[in-house]
Amino acid sequence: MKTNWWKKAVIYQIYPRSFQDSNGDGIGDLAGIISRLDYLKKLGIDAIWLSPVYQSPNDDNGYDISDYQKIGSEYGTMETMDLLISEANKRNIKIIMDLVVNHTSDEHPWFQSALKGPESPYYDFYVWRNQPNQIVSNFGGSAWEYVPQLDQYYLHLHSIKQPDLNWENKNMRQAIWDMMNFWLNKGIGGFRLDVIDLIGKEPDQEITKNGPRLHELLQEMNQKTFGHYDVVTVGETWGATPEIAQLYSGEERQELSMVFQFEQIGLDKQAGKRKWDLKKLDPQELHQVLSKWQIELAGKGWNSLFWNNHDLPRIISRWGDDQNFRILSGKMLAIYLHFMQGTPYIYQGEEIGMINHPVTDISEVDDIESRRMYQERLAAGYTNAELLDSINAKGRDNARHPMQWDSSSNAGFTTGTPWLPVGDATEINVADSLADPESLFYTYQKLIQLRKSEETIISGSYQVVETGNLQVLAYLRELNNDKILVVVNFSAEKQSYKLNFKPEVREWLITNYQEQISEDLKPYEAFAVRIK
Ligand code: GLC
Ligand code: CA
Fold first, then answer.
1. Residue 357: alpha-carbon gap to chain centroid
2. How far apart are CA 337 and CA 307, in angstroms?
């Protein structure tokens, strides 16, 4: 029976390469994750979204899969994977697999066979054309790669080593359904569907996202696979509007549980440009966008709530203050987001306030997206300094540096040489966070608990509250006369504000200062109170 357990759940994302190494090769692995399950249990999360651990040549760190039913040797074996699922389940933690089915690796046997030409049964699993058109790859440059022996081009919306699958091909779809059922039968908790809004593409029309058959394909996927299980599904959909998100997540439509939408993520880039073209965030814009999603999906879909993932910079460095108010701004951001309606996602290290990891030279950068952008823009006349500024602000490596467990060498992540350098863990690490009752960790723990006890957070209505100050954001959640007021100061300065009602506090739920409402808010002050 379906229970929608995920409406009360908080999900934790693990980027396995950087979480915990168990054998000293410098790469995080499944045994490492198993050894940290008790930590995650203490945090209180319900499920883990595991970034890809399948066999992969790692051109895009596992998002280029060469065998969907094998575990990458650096991560362990299928036995370790089974053990992770059962050890997690013992602790009431579900494992959500990352499903990357817009493309495979070029080293996948399907693509290797496809390269033999139209007589291969796998040729039509991919998208071939005699001539390229204007479609560009999400990582920059043309999305078409020439194959001399076929005198044809294949489509790759990401790197050359990530050929796009042809979702028009029935046999291809069946092979994907079989693979998904293989995983569902292992007792996993669901799927996160990588760039899923691209599978309905119409390359000849130059339509890549939100293609005409997208929702039909998802309904078929639902029927053939996860629709028969009590699992969560979350689609990564960069092109979703609230209207589109209703199609994905409206319950009667039988597509997905929810999607990751990214409208707020684009608010600190220049309009019409790429994420590298930086602009300062306006907190009012953020409040408008998130409030719009709250209101438009209410009763018609379901939101996911997140600040971070493995593709985004660390939120405290991005929209908080990682120099002077690391903990206070981290708590403010957490409180502001976690009282909204939807399923919150916490990205590894967010709960201890990990920050960005600036570089001084392009040779220090691992991420394929940043490296491609650097070469492209250098050739176009940008300066080295400008490009490093962009990479330090937005580059994906920022979130991929190893998890900081303690202040020992390599932060307890590995006894060997880490695949990506470890940041400064003297102040930012799990051991110290656990020892300090005032740490960000316990704010997250509390927020997760509140989601279990406060039905108003799960199903209450949402209303924007005016504060008369552009830096002060507030909202009200309400269910059957239960009212929760959330007020946050999104700035490093003291701010005065005025509500058009006088809140009478019934109960303090959480704050990052004293339990006291005053006329001025201190830097990054944030609170949630039950009011009369
Ligand atoms: C998604 C992943 C990202 C990956 C891309 C291609 O955006 O989150 O890490 O590079 O898809 O698979
Ligand atoms: Ca390892």
1. 18
2. 8
pTM of the model: 0.98
User: What distance in Å separates the CA atoms of residue 144 and residue 157, rounded to the nearest whole number?
Assistant: 8
**CA 254 to ligand 1 center in whole angstroms:** 25
Nearby residues for ligand 2 (ion, Cβ within 5 Å): 21, 23, 25, 27, 29
Catalytic residue among 236, 263, 369, 525: 236
Mean pLDDT, rounded, for 426-453 = 98
Stretch 475-502: mean pLDDT: 97
Q: Quote the tokens at residue 58.
A: 């790692």
**Domains and their CATH numbers in the chain:** 8-88+304-357+401-453 (3.20.20.80), 109-155 (3.90.400.10), 170-302 (3.20.20.80), 459-531 (2.60.40.1180)
pLDDT in tens, 239-248: 999 999 999 9
Catalytic residue among 46, 164, 194, 454: 194
Question: Using a 6 Å cutoff on CB, does residue 158 contact ligand 1?
Answer: yes
Band (pLDDT 50/70/90 cuts) for residue 90 is very high
Cα distances (Å, whole numbers) of residue 428 to 15, 181, 393, 507, 511: 18, 40, 20, 32, 21
The verdict on whether 364 is a catalytic residue reads no
Q: Is 340 in the pocket of ligand 1 (CB under 6 A)?
A: no
